[in-house]
Amino acid sequence: MRYTFFAVLICLLCSCGVQPYEASKSELEYASKAYSHPTTFTLTKTDAQNAWARANLFVTQYSTMKIQNATEYLIDTYNVTDPGYFGYTITRTPIGDSTMFVVKCNCGVGPKSLYNSSMHLTARADFNEHAAAYFMSTGQVMAPMVNNYWNDVKSNSYDPYK
Fold first, then answer.
1. Which of 53-57, 118-122, 158-162 bottoms out in mean pLDDT, i.e. has the lowest?
2. pLDDT tens digits, one per residue of 89-106
3. Residue 87, exposed/middle/buried by CB under 10 A (0-12, 13-18, 19+)?
4. How many CB atoms lie within 10 A of CB 83?
5. Looking at the predicted structure, is the pLDDT value of residue 39 above 90?
6. Short-list 158, 90, 161, CA closest to 129
7. CA contacts within 13 A on the Cβ side of 64
């Protein structure tokens, strides 16, 4: 887990073919907070309603795949067919007076693994899972750091503030 965090930070700071971008202090703080948030978490029923609305908002705004299924307990995008695209599956399960959430992000390169030849994509998908979970819990997101980063790097036009 610790190594994945550093891999994500490295991905944020530089990439092949693009001049290194020096992340600001606020970007590094956000990345640290988001990445430390678990992708499986529990909230009270009161907080769960807001979190579910944020989950819908996050997937609508940041997924590169359209939503295929949206129910009271599942948000699921179409399957990712090409590397560099991100899809999500978010579930919620009522447990007594609380609700458990599970956030998954798929980047279209198979199981996430740091040893995968597409380490950059899998690290981004891993970060996106944590960013979605963090947003669901807190309402805080740093948009330039989610999904769009990889698509901009591919086209050599990464601008963290666009």
1. 158-162
2. 999 999 999 999 999 998
3. buried
4. 15
5. yes
6. 90
7. 20
Cα 117 to Cα 7, 99, 114, 123: the distances in Å are 14, 36, 8, 11
**Structure pTM?**
0.73
Expressed in angstroms, the distance from the first to the final Cα of the chain is 30
Angle at 147 between CA 142 and CA 148, to 5 degrees: 85
- b/e map 51-74, b = 16+ CB within 10 Å: bbebbeebbeebbbbeeeeeeeee
> Which pLDDT score, from 0 to 100, does residue 86 have?
86
